[in-house]
Design goal:
mainly alpha; 5 helices
């Protein structure tokens, strides 16, 4: 397994001379920095705007990661990472809706789905040798 991680670290991506790992972790780091810069919501309207901004950032992250060319033999893990991020986004949307209608059972289900998606993202990121992606996301909150 160490050889797969080493290969991922050295595999070139595109014409930029940066490895897949550097580019993927750069994408994830930009998302985290953008999320950290957002102000906290204090009203329901502000919460809705915050959710939309965070969701857009998560969707952009997934799109940019999907556009990267994964090293040979690592395509499935890269696809799993993007799928897991999409799962986190879907769980967050279910959480938002359940919160709006006050459905505590659905809230718990969405939180569980978000935690499962985060677990999958962390596993895929580990298989790819990533240091940032999959390690900083919050379950059920894009």
């Amino acid at each position: 397994m160490a050889s797969a991680a080493a290969f991922a670290m050295t595999a070139g991506c595109g014409g930029h001379g940066r490895s897949f790992v550097e580019r993927a972790d750069g994408i994830c780091a930009r998302r985290e920095a953008a999320i950290s810069a957002l102000s906290q919501a204090r009203t329901p309207a502000a919460f809705a705007r915050l959710f939309e901004r965070r969701a857009r950032l998560a969707k952009l992250e997934a799109s940019e990661l999907q556009a990267l060319e994964a090293p040979d033999g690592m395509e499935a893990a890269a696809g799993s990472l993007v799928d897991a991020i999409d799962g986190e986004i879907a769980a967050a949307e279910r959480l938002r809706v359940a919160s709006l209608i006050g459905d505590s059972e659905s809230i718990q289900g969405a939180l569980y789905q978000g935690r499962q998606a985060l677990r999958r993202a962390r596993g895929a990121a580990a298989r790819l040798g990533l240091g940032i992606c999959g390690h900083v996301a919050n379950a059920a909150s894009p």
